[in-house]
Design goal:
The structure is a single chain. The chain is of the alpha/beta class. The chain has one domain: Vaccinia Virus protein VP39 (Rossmann fold), CATH 3.40.50.150. 29% of the residues lie in helices and 27% in strands. It has seven helices and 13 strands. Strands 2-1-10-13-9-8-5-6-7 form a nine-stranded mixed β-sheet. A two-stranded antiparallel sheet has the order 3-4. It has a two-stranded antiparallel sheet with strand order 11-12. A hairpin with a 2-residue loop joins strand 3 and strand 4. The radius of gyration is 18 Å and the shape is globular.
């Protein structure tokens, strides 16, 4: 099933960007509507006669800019847990991603965006490709452990590379496109501010290695504002407990407006689309009914 727009334009409390405005203006495109730079909004969905409408509110600049002044760093525990979980459970994870309906929708959404890209970089893919690799002429995949995997576990046209999303081992302006699928929420620092800084740094690195007019495609599991506020509150304790008692690494999921706000610092334009959820999703590596989670999947396409 293709990605779908769930927002009603008539419910948006801001003025759309006029088509006649300069192409130099930075834009955010949320489900078919262009917005001026700095007018990022978020929506809380509510059902009205079976249709979704949006109740939009401005995003506080402090929520987007609340980042650490320190150099971004993923915690040692996060690096260790992400490496061991996705490396050691690669085949089982591949099987679930390949069969669950939500991930079929994700695959169709990404395929639409990567078609026509000659040279693609996949950052943090964990050895799992959520799209049709045959659509690409050249593909480089980078993650913490990919060179350690058996060559037979990767598609024939993939060049694996070990490296961090926060410090990509490639020269500037190398790739026509960059894709990050379910990466951002894994870039865990010692605080929420550090996590936001890590996300911003990963985006900056992606834009550094992109050629002019290239595009960054991010597919990410996002949460509504009320859940994000809860995550921020329990983050110190939750990361300790998850790090100690669970095989899956700790995560921090962001509202889509926060991700769009971070992207607008680098991009000429950003498009945000919600991908239709299926019956099942993966939560901490466990198959879970979509109706019982606040998480929604979004695709962000940002142009350099």
């Amino acid at each position: 099933m293709a990605a779908s727009s769930l927002w009603a334009p008539s419910a948006l409390h801001a003025e759309p960007l006029a088509d006649k405005q300069s192409s130099q203006t930075r834009r955010i495109r949320v489900c078919g509507i262009n917005w001026r730079r700095g007018q990022i909004h978020t929506a809380e969905k509510r059902s009205q006669g079976g249709a979704f409408v949006a109740n939009w509110q401005p995003v506080s600049a402090s929520l987007v800019s609340m980042i650490s002044p320190n150099h971004p760093k993923q915690t040692d525990n996060s690096v260790e847990k992400n490496t061991s979980f996705f490396r050691d459970q690669l085949e089982g994870y591949k099987s679930q991603v390949g069969t669950l309906d939500t991930y079929r929708n994700i695959r169709a959404s990404i395929n639409k965006e990567i078609a026509g890209i000659d040279y693609l970089l996949d950052v943090g893919n964990g050895g799992t490709f959520d799209y049709d690799v045959s659509l690409l002429r050249e593909l480089v995949a980078v993650d913490l452990f990919l060179e350690d995997l058996p060559p037979a576990s990767l598609p024939a046209n993939v060049v694996p590379k070990n490296g961090s999303a926060l410090d990509l081992p490639f020269p500037a302006e190398t790739f026509d496109g960059v894709v990050m699928v379910m990466l951002i929420h894994h870039l865990i620092g010692t605080s929420v501010a550090d996590c936001l800084e890590n996300a911003s740094r990963a985006m900056a690195e992606a834009f550094r290695v992109l050629k002019p007019k290239g595009k960054l495609i991010i597919v990410e599991s996002c949460v509504p504002w009320w859940f994000y506020r809860f995550e921020r509150l329990v983050f110190p304790l939750a990361t300790k407990l998850i790090g100690r008692f669970m095989e899956h690494p700790a995560t921090l999921q962001l509202p889509p407006a926060v991700i769009a706000g971070l992207l607008e610092k680098h991009a000429v334009s950003v498009e945000v689309t919600r991908i239709q959820s299926g019956t099942w999703v993966l939560q901490y590596g466990v198959k879970w009914p979509s109706r019982l989670t606040p998480v929604g999947v979004y695709r962000f396409v940002a142009y350099k």
